[in-house]
Amino acid sequence: MKSILAIEDDPSLLDLLKMHLKDIDGYLDTAQDGVMGLDKILNRSYDLIILDVMLPKLDGFEICKKARAQNINTPILMLTAKSEEIDKILGLEIGADDYVIKPFSIRELIARVKALLRRASRLDNGNQDTSQSLDRGEMTIELEKRKVTINGNRVELSPKEFELLAFMAQSPGVSYSRTRLLNTIWGYDFEGFAHTVNSHINRLRTKIEVDVSNPQYILTTWGVGYRFNEDV
């Protein structure tokens, strides 16, 4: 059973979520203000977090930033009543994995929940094909397990950080534009979201590089975007 936390102050929406998540074998925990929600994120383990932006006491953007700052890599689906592009961009830049704009149908929301859970639940079944491992210098990326180790030490990455790393590591030396990475990893084809890629690359570098000012793995191709170092 999947454990899902919904931080939302609308009781009617929480009731709908509880009803529909039963159909996908999901258990729903809830919090109706931001302070309580953040406390649960920091002290419990979940498979997915549904996070409203507009909350009492502490808004969803702050919750997301604080969670990611504590290396909590649980997938986050943000809910927002705002339609401005800047709000979508901000949510993605601070570490959300997807967002849904209110008003939405419960079917749309559940479809997004299912998609995030599928991406996050590729578990080790004990029979993984070793060809699904990429060895890049001191780094090993196990694609099916979604696991990264450097010198044998596991590196905890968010879903999008892992997908960025794995995508580029499969073709060392190939330079990808921010737009290409955005479209491939997030599925968004909008120029205004390109800075989202920069933010995720910066967070990824802090986790995998010894010296972020002189990166060994993820290199910048000036005027283009990023590439995985072909010389490691």
The name CATH uses for the topology of the largest domain is: Rossmann fold
Name the average pLDDT.
Answer: 85
Number of helices: 8
The main sheet comes to: 5 strands, parallel
Poorly predicted sequence stretches spanning 5 or more consecutive residues: 122-130
Q: β content, as a range?
A: 15-25%
Order of helices and strands: EHEHEHEHEHEEEEHEHHEE
Based on the coordinates given, report the CATH architecture of the largest domain: 3-Layer(aba) Sandwich
| Percent in helix | 25-40%
- Spatial separation of the terminal alpha carbons: 40 Å
Oligomer: single chain
Strand order of the largest sheet: 2-1-3-4-5
Q: What is the name of the CATH class of the largest domain? A: Alpha Beta
Instruction: Give the count of structural domains.
Output: 2
CATH superfamily descriptor of the largest domain: Response regulator
